[in-house]
Amino acid sequence: MSLAVVTLFPEMFGALTDYGVTGRARDQGCYELALVNPREFATDRHNTVDDRPYGGGPGMVMKAPIMEAALTGARQALGSVGDKARVIAMSPQGQRLDDALVRELARAPALVIVAGRYEGIDERFIETFVDQEVSVGDFVVSGGELPAMLLLDAVIRQLPGALGHSDSADEDSFADGLLDCPHYTRPEAYRGQQVPSVLLSGDHGAIARWRRQQSLKRTAERRPDLLAGVALSEQDRALLEE
Ligand code: SAH
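^ thats the input. predicted complex w/ S-adenosyl-L-homocysteine below
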């Protein structure tokens, strides 16, 4: 997948590209990430990218013409798929990021993510060029870089080959609408707590049943809102009753 981010702090994205699953996925060519700094498109000798807000008040606003030039630079960096890229701006005012949106974005041919700083970006840039604003939650952080990395990490996990065989995204929370089951590893006894015996039984049918039951139980206890949206089978209902 071809990805680009418009950001004043491209160095931050090493946290995504250099570590763990997302680092390996990049080494394997699952995605390419272009980082485009609006600062390079500034036209004055101070490399100004922001200005004071019309109407007064605190903070600064990222300038529309410079963001437009940076977006064009990002499309160019994406090459032939640049024109087809979906443009996402990270914003606390956007659609809340969830598993369904992540899977939808992972199917796009290419993405350009725009990370804001300061008070945000001139509204006219957003209206003209941004397909969708996406939020990572009802709180405000200092810039769009960490939200963009959250989105990108979640999208990259969905790309074919990003996770090894043993580590399928389909078993994670939300994939089937439920929370994941609890996990255990050695030692068998830890601070007086035993690993559930069914997991030591070698009975794969019983283990699958127990895991499904735990998923259902956790979701019912912690996220009844999720459970309401899942089509439960007869067997699921029986497991929940138990
Ligand atoms: N004045 C804005 C917040 C600006 S924070 C407001 O109140 O709506 C600066 C930048 O951080 C934003 O442009 C956005 O890119 C990013 N950001 C902050 N909180 C975010 C969130 N919850 N989700 C996604 N991006 C966020």
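The first strand starts at residue 2 and ends at 6.
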